[in-house]
Amino acid sequence: MAAVGAALGFVAGLWGAHWVLEQDRIVVARFEGKRFEVPSKVYSAPLIVYPGSDWQRMDLAGWLVRSGYREQPEGGSLRPGRYVWAPSRLRVHLRAFEHPLRPEPARDLEFRLKGGEIEFISDAFSGNPLDVVVLEPEPVSAFLGQDGEQRDLVRLDELPPSLVSAIYAVEDKRFEEHHGIDLRRVVGAVLANLRAGQIEQGASTLTQQLVKNFFLTPERTFERKLREAIMALIIEARYSKPEILQAYLNEIYFGQRGSTEIHGVGEASRLYFGKSATSLSVSESALLAAIIQSPNGISPFKRPEKAQARRNMVLELMFEQERISWEEFEMARREPLRVSAVNPDARDVRYFLDALSQQLPGVYDSDVLSTRGLQIYSTLEPRVQRAAVKALRGGLARIEANSSARGRPISGLQGCLIAMRPQTGEILALVGGRDYGSSQWNRCIQARRPVGSVFKPFVYVAALDPEYGPVLTLADTLEDTPFEVETRETEAPWQPQNYDHQFRGTVKVREALERSLNVPAARLGQQVGISRVAETARRLGVTSALPEVPSLSLGTAEVAPLEVARAYATLANGGRRPTPRTFVDLVEADGVVGEVQPLEGAERAIDPATAFLAVSLLEGVVDRGTAARVRRSGMRGPIAGKTGTTDDEHDLWFVGFTPELVAVVWVGFDEPAPVGVPSSAGALPIWTDFMMEVVGKQVRGAFPRPSSVEVVSVDPKTGARALAGCPARHDEFFIRGTSPEQTCPVSKQSDEQPGLFRRTLGRLFGR
């Protein structure tokens, strides 16, 4: 029997040794490999403020709260991250922030406010005025992995001593003394639980908590507890206390933000206080330590009284264990609970993130984005994005509600809204659908739909461009009379019709576009040449296939909203075609700049004079034409735009722009079906709601007129140059060298010389 027992003992010993070695292998693989998968973080564009800017519209107060700044009463010094808001004055001590191209130091600034505007900005100490201030970007979201964990890795030597002291005090006060298992704490917990008749105290050390989070499941079994103890001893034997503590601080669970798990003190500090863990106060450190026991049960967002009580208990422990002084204890205990505004990782930006991931260089695939901890500085402006989401969702709901009131209820309507800065191509907002949770199809980029009348301006651009003629001027007329075109695609000739099936005879160029007449546009397309129209659209930025058929002039081509935005941005940018961009800078986890997209000049696509004439035409659409609802809403200043409604009202479009912003709205069903209203009652109100929220009623700036464009007084009826004695006149824009030679009253010389339009037609058609 003794031999059998010895043999069994030997076998058990071998098995036990093998089991311990296996646990050691698991520990070493995790600690000496890649310990954490860190999602790449996306930051917004910096907020730029200057004298004259509207601080209310740019939501300066909201930025302070979301960024974790704390308000304090007037008087006394102002530390970084604090501000004082007094009547007509804001003083804020900006924190320093790192940025690959635009790093900013900490600065104590004073903003003088007058009404809704910033009147004056100065340095609080020297009083020197400042022309512009760049405020740090806001965290927008992150590229999460399958586990949905978000963390911001920190180094132990960067953290304030108060944070480590607070965690030691409440979680493991003898961490520096034990070797992974605190036997004294185990005995104490057992006695306390026996006295209470239930489990009230735990005995896990920080090392055991780390093991549980790193390697084990939360199930409570003898085998799991044994593995936890053995692994804790192995970790303590192999690695130093600072290494263990740093791993713990980056791993510990701190609650949820939406569907995202928050891990580590770095990300927790961003969530609860809106700032880096390196600048936590004693009170804030104690609150983080207090939350560890039950992040959801002691959440300062949901249960502030409970969170404050436990924070104060942690402070008491810190004082009793001589980790803080009495003065520090009293000051921290009196401090009210201040947490940042909840900024959920909302689905509202997911369409933008999808577009961003597609534009990032090929080396940054989905696995890299969700594990490498890149810092991506995007072009997204949060307030513009919020306005876009609000306007699109509200507008779609309004259309559906109105359809029910008319007795033809519709549901499931979709749409998209994209906003771009024309000079740089920076996408400031992108909402690719009504709800990302129900559909990830990005209608701004992936969907291609018939563009309808928003294509017509490209026909006029082709006709105005001096590189090809030009074929007409803004003072010319077009024929709105029946005509037909033989086509290869159909046996019957193509006969374009206006939306109301009426013909108006001879109409002015401006009237034809302002009223979005089909027949004059179709005639002009034939006169210019469909291939030239298609080439013009491609030069402006359209990349989708453009079938060279007569109906192309009326927008039968299927184009993505992003392409439409780029084409109109080219017009707004004086004929220079911008490249759409979703990010500017990208930094690797080690601080090395991985990718930079400097703001380069856009490529010249069309003549600047042609672009200006096209913008002038589109301003008329807003002032007097199908988009006059914009003016009726109260918006003033330089605004241009074009409505577009396809056959049977399947697709509603509105493209509108100011000197600083281009926005495209599309409304329709994913499976084409009638919406029941034209674009002027569907897409245009959404655009107006959005722009009123972003820029207000008064649009600033101007569309600059190139030197190659001159102003000439003409007779509004004939388009002839108006001389003294002409009964009526108005000013019109012309590319130099194309103004009318015929005069009003008619002179003998001018009567003998045909106008530009007739001369050009004669040259084109040989008569």
Describe the structure.
This protein is of the alpha+beta class and 767 residues long. Among the domains are: 47-136, Penicillin-binding protein 1b fold (2-Layer Sandwich), CATH 3.30.2060.10; 151-334, Biosynthetic peptidoglycan transglycosylase-like (Penicillin binding protein transpeptidase fold), CATH 1.10.3810.10; 709-765, no CATH class. 37% of the residues lie in helices and 17% in strands. It contains 24 helices and 30 strands. A five-stranded mixed β-sheet has the order 9-1-13-21-22. It has a five-stranded mixed β-sheet with strand order 3-4-5-6-7, with no helix packed on it. Strands 15-14-26-25-24 form a five-stranded antiparallel β-sheet, sandwiched between helices. Strand 25 (651-657) and strand 26 form a beta hairpin. Helix 3 crosses helix 10 (304-320), helix 15 crosses helix 17 and helix 18 (530-540) crosses helix 19 (561-572). The longest helix has 31 residues, at 2-32. It starts with a helix and ends with a helix.
| Proportion of residues in helical segments | 25-40%
* CATH-defined fold name of one domain: Penicillin binding protein transpeptidase fold
Major sheet details? 5 strands, mixed
User: What is the count of helical runs?
Assistant: 24
Secondary structure: number of strands: 30
- Going by CATH, the homologous superfamily of one domain would be Biosynthetic peptidoglycan transglycosylase-like
Average pLDDT metric = 86
Would you identify the CATH architecture of one domain? Orthogonal Bundle
Shape assignment: elongated
Strand order of the largest sheet: 9-1-13-21-22
Q: Runs with pLDDT <50, length 5+?
A: 196-201, 749-767
CATH class descriptor of one domain: Mainly Alpha
Rounded to the nearest angstrom, the radius of gyration is 34 Å
Structural class: alpha+beta
| End-to-end Cα distance | 122 Å
Tell me what portion of residues adopts beta-strand conformation. 15-25%
